[in-house]
Design goal:
The chain is α/β, with parallel strands linked by helices. It folds into 2 domains: 201 residues, Rossmann fold (3-Layer(aba) Sandwich), CATH 3.40.50; 217 residues, Vaccinia Virus protein VP39 (Rossmann fold). It is 32% helix and 26% strand. It contains 16 helices and 18 strands. A 7-stranded mixed sheet has the order 3-2-1-4-5-7-6, sandwiched between helices. Helix 1 runs parallel beside helix 3 and helix 5 crosses helix 6.
Length: 439
């Protein structure tokens, strides 16, 4: 069986299929030949497969194709929106239509509970509480099977948690740097031809085995409490596994805050740059229906430190109008920001690789009077398309603030197109914050 995959230099295993994935697929193929999956293949109704942490979709796509003689419904989930895009593209590229394979940006095991086969090259950096929760909930009913591969240093941890969850390890295969575990919930391992009660899947699903699907965040993902002070404003926020910015605000945030204060972006009129109350006035637009819109867009702000500071200093009387639109690649970072802003402002999450590729989705809540973007990376070739996106997303007299590594900020500033005026420029510890107004 031949496959053709597009890989990304910005995702895990960017040059070739990694050895852990290859080992898991080898074990899966052997167990398929030996008949371990036969009872799943023979049960009535569609077979639901979950590829958790799908990356580019290699594991889920290969499994779905190997089982394509039966009614298979596969979901690929990953915390990264770019991974979801590549997974969906690779599924179509390998002959799996949307009715057979769908890709979603999601936390681990969040989503459709009707999963019969769970496959995962488990993310080693997810955090041990997250991995424990994953193993505990991996098999939602007695017939479900899980195939996971983990790096060698995690093997004892994974094995211990499978046992602690009351599951039965059917096979353990060690490679040079990884170990594959095949397990199911605690019951005697089925043998080929051993039979399966046709209604056991429905019975087990009805007994609430998906408890904790929505509760996993924030409880399982919470990492630590961060108390910090930014320009005289004391902030308290929770930080979460799988999202950057858990130790301190970081230089990019500090530069953005400094420039915001310098320009008076979050203060009444008369800031240092004498802006006309850029946030309060220009972000309010009267629609044809006579309603007011004061939505602000925050892209790639890690765990929400900058928007939390922004709204705390803006004041409650200016926070009540409009919503904070949170966008970015990492759904865990978005959910962390949403959690930290929950008592401050209404939020909307829009997973987005960048402003340019997601401008159609983002413009539905716009146009915006203020946009802040603090991306970890912005491919140089995409800079012109970001400027073009701002012409669509930012309303007249609206302000765009960004904080980037200095060399990248220099290129971004040079690529500025007509119709924008630079308002400010501030350097801090290898980062450069820039602000522009749309004329």
């Amino acid at each position: 069986m031949e496959f053709n995959f597009a890989l990304s230099r910005e995702l895990f295993s960017s040059a070739e299929i990694d050895t852990g994935t290859a080992l898991l697929l080898k074990v899966f193929s052997e167990e398929l030949d030996r008949g371990l999956l036969r009872e799943l293949q023979n049960h009535k109704g569609p077979l639901h497969i979950l590829d958790a942490g799908s990356g580019c979709g290699v594991i889920g796509i290969c499994a779905a194709r190997a089982l394509e003689g039966i009614d298979v419904r596969t979901i690929g989930t990953d915390r990264d929106e770019l991974a979801g895009i590549f997974t969906g593209y690779n599924a179509r590229r390998n002959g799996l239509g949307s009715e057979k394979f769908s890709a979603h940006t999601s936390t681990l095991l969040n989503g459709d509970p009707a999963r019969d086969l769970i496959l995962s090259n488990i993310p080693a950096k997810a955090g041990k509480p997250v991995l424990e929760d994953f193993i505990r909930r991996a098999c939602p009913h007695a017939a479900a099977l899980a195939f996971i591969v983990a790096v060698k240093p995690l093997a004892d941890f994974i094995r211990g948690n499978i046992t602690a969850a009351g599951a039965e390890i059917l096979r353990e295969t060690a490679g040079a740097g990884h170990t594959v575990f095949v397990f199911r919930r605690g019951r005697a391992a089925s043998r080929p031809g051993g039979g399966l009660r046709q209604n056991c899947l429905a019975e087990d699903r009805s007994r609430g085995n998906t408890a904790g699907e929505e509760e996993a965040f924030p409880g399982v993902y919470r990492r630590q409490r961060l108390e910090t002070e930014l320009e005289g404003c004391t902030l308290g926020m929770d930080t979460f596994h799988g999202a950057p910015g858990f130790g301190d605000p970081g230089a990019a945030v500090l530069a953005a805050v400094k420039l915001s204060c310098k320009l008076g972006l979050n203060t009444p009129p008369g800031g240092e740059a004498q802006l006309k109350n850029s946030i309060e006035v220009s972000s309010v637009e009267v629609s044809s229906a006579g309603t007011f819109h004061a939505n602000r867009l925050f892209h790639e702000t890690e765990q929400g430190c900058y928007p939390l500071w922004f709204y705390k200093t803006l004041g409650p009387e200016k926070t009540q109008n409009g919503k904070a639109i949170l966008s970015g690649r990492n759904i865990l970072a978005l959910k962390a920001a949403e959690y930290n802003l929950r008592n401050t402002v209404n939020t909307v999450l829009i997973p987005a690789v960048d402003l340019a590729s997601a401008k159609d989705a983002l413009r539905g809540e716009g146009p915006y009077g203020f946009i802040a973007a603090l991306p970890e990376n912005m491919p140089r070739e995409s800079i012109p398309s970001h400027w073009e996106a701002l012409t669509v997303l930012l309303q007249a007299q609206g302000v765009f603030l960004t904080s980037l590594p200095s060399s990248l900020a220099e290129q971004f500033d040079r690529a500025k197109i007509s119709g924008f005026t630079r308002l400010g420029n501030l350097r801090r510890e290898g980062f450069r914050a820039l602000a522009y107004r749309k004329d």
